[in-house]
Design brief:
Length: 498
Amino acid sequence: MQIISEQIIGQAINSERVSITLEIAPFDVGPGKIPDATFEAKGDLLLGTGPATYDNLPAGVNGYLLQADSTALLGVKWASILVGASMSLTNNSGSTQLLGTTVVIDPTGDDSFTVTTVAQNKNVFGVLLEDVVNGAAGKVGFGGLAVVNVAGNVVRGNFLVSSTTSGRAKDYGSALRPPWGAVGVALTGYSGGGNGTVYAILFCDVGMNVINKVAAIVELFGSSITNSTTNGCALPTAVEMPTNKNTYKVPLFMKDTAVEKILTGDFAADSNWTKGTGWTIGSGVATATAGSASDLSQTTAPLINAVVYVVTYTLTRTAGSITPKCGTQVGTSRSASGTYTEVITANGTAFLFSKDASFAGTLDNVSVKPIYVPGGEWTFELPPDYDGGTFTAHVTWWHPTATFNFNVAWNIAMVAMTDAGAIDVALGSPVQVNDVGGSANTMYKTPESAAITCAGTPLAGKRVNVKVTRVSTDSTNDTLASVGVYLDTVVLTYTRAG
């Protein structure tokens, strides 16, 4: 490049030509420049990692949003959209699980999840809203809008259930109501074959039957109502609203009773256990010697008849065999060392290990927790138009195993609470309603009960406690104790004078 400089001196013009060479360095060469190679793919974002340092963030999954996260390396991460309910659970699946994974409750650990390869698993809890490494806690969504990983094609508007591909949902098809184990309903479709993702509205059962918060909808009404029961979802699918608008829908949740039934299961102290011949407790284990058949038992926290329990223990075996029992219900006999988990339906109040005469070995880390409770207890507020009418109710329920004895009986009792009054108030006399099942995993609805007397003084606006329990002592009308029964829904009806 040349620059011409002119200077006027008197009447003369003095011109001078000067040549200047300019060198322009490439964009990514030299101090303070960003190398082009930093950007590795379409959609990469360049983010600071600290003073004078940076790195790129790859593009996220379609539809994900950029979300601040102080624990992430770059301070932000791609995350699924969520407009709804979620909670934090620990990944107990054995490997890292990715955002959009369908998960189920892990019955072997508290507040934890795992994945399933069982199609239409009824214990589906929700969908991961972020990547979660094994052993770490992560957010699980069970209601609202989220991205769901799927296996196979999905038609928009169809229900989603778990598939045989680990952690992925599949298209259940169209139906009038959600199927058992529903993950949600697809808002977008997928037609690429193999694995993909869709947006979905989640309404998972939240593992209600597993974590002992059995969801129910109580429908209070003074006129007709149809299709009020639920099928795998805690919301009614169709309601015929009466002309006098006396229909009220109140979501009620069962009290959490998923408590450990075994005390000193780690054998840190020689207490709570009844030791038969040949049993001793010390050094953090229960030790048995060979010589005679005997039991190691505990009734400090009695088991409940007909409740299904998850039994876990660690066995170190030298000889012989040992069997866990819930009352008289026998579990699996073990004759090898290992950590075992099994499910036993209680038939009695005691938990025990029965050893044969040749057994020698130790037990440790014993845990017994209920999978579900065959009943529920809820509190709700009477609607403003209640004027002293009569209460009746019916129950929907199901049993997981076919049996030749199909009878089940439920007790329903109520009490009205008083403002500034005692919490522990006796319920009114229970009213029993009987029903007959027969086919496994089939919904049954009891007849309408006789009038239920509500203890206390039920008035509009007052809180009322409702309790529903199995009548396991009625051997004529309740014969399903050996397989257990799941309570699904309670529909409570009241009449109005006006």
